[in-house]
Amino acid sequence: MRPAAGSGGAGSWISFGGAATVKLPPRTRAVVPFTVTVPPASPPGDHPAAVVATEAGREAGVRVHLRVGGPALAALTVEEVSVRGHGTATTVDYTLVNRGNVTLTPELALRAGGTFGGPRTLPARALPLELLPGRRARLSEPWPGAPAFGRVTVTLTATAPGAAPATATASAWPVPGGGAALAGGALTALGGTAVAALLLVRARRSRRSRRAEPYARPPARTPDDERAHEKDDRHELTGATR
Q: How far apart, in whole angstroms, are the C-alpha atoms of residue 155 and residue 142?
């Protein structure tokens, strides 16, 4: 017989003395005494522990409920709320923390809604959990009716006997399998292609307009211009000075 490993400081308070080993015949039972010595400076509240019996590699354990007298404080918080998944696979993840000095059996209520979906309320229900002092537990709640698009908001309210209600809220923008982001990227690519095609069409039209533009003809020569031109040509051919 021994205290359970990992039972915390309270496990060291348990002692079996010389009765740590017990010989137990088949179909019989034995009463095994042990003592609990509480250190003088132990804080008030619950101090969980356990006793384990081992034989041939098999174990059987039993919890020991120890409470030190003094002020009892029940305090519960909800933390790290997040929305994960999409559609029927949507879940709400959260963490419950026991910040008091007594063991808690919490209940949880959920209210959720979105831009494109009405609110959904799950009434308070007991969780399959016993939360020891100073411990935390990471849990998930299914949300099969979560909206597929738009902003969603989730509010969790946790309660426990003797503790004030604890509330936490989280918001998220679900994206169905990344499809929205992919569609946005595709639209951006198509927009870039359309702009490039438009510029190409404009460039081709500009080149065609330049080719189709008629050249300006020089002004018609008068008889005086013709005689002056012939005179200039004679000077150029003979090389004579004017």
A: 14
> In whole angstroms, what is the distance from residue 141 CA to residue 107 CA?
12
Count other Cβ atoms within 10 Å, centred on residue 148: 16
Among 96, 38, 42, 100, smallest CA distance to 72 is for 100
Domains, the chain, ordered by start: 2-68 (no CATH), 76-176 (2.60.40.10)
Q: When comparing pLDDT for 183 and 112, which is higher? A: 112
Q: pLDDT confidence of 22, banded at 50, 70, 90?
A: confident
- Determine the pLDDT at residue 56: 82
Helices (H), the chain: 179-212, 223-238
For residue 215, how many other CB atoms are within 10 A of its CB? 5
Residue 190 vs residue 93, higher pLDDT? 93
pLDDT digits (tens, 9 = 90+) for 49-63: 888 888 888 888 888
C-alpha separations of 38 from 69, 170, 236 in Å: 11, 43, 131
Task: Report yes or no: 68 and 51 within 8 Å, Cβ to Cβ.
Answer: no
The DSSP secondary-structure symbol of 97 reads: E
Find out whether 117 and 151 touch, Cβ atoms under 8 Å: no
Q: For residue 16, give both structure tokens.
A: 């079996």
Count of CB atoms situated within 10 Å of the CB of 131: 21
pTM: 0.62
Six token digits for residue 102: 């007594």
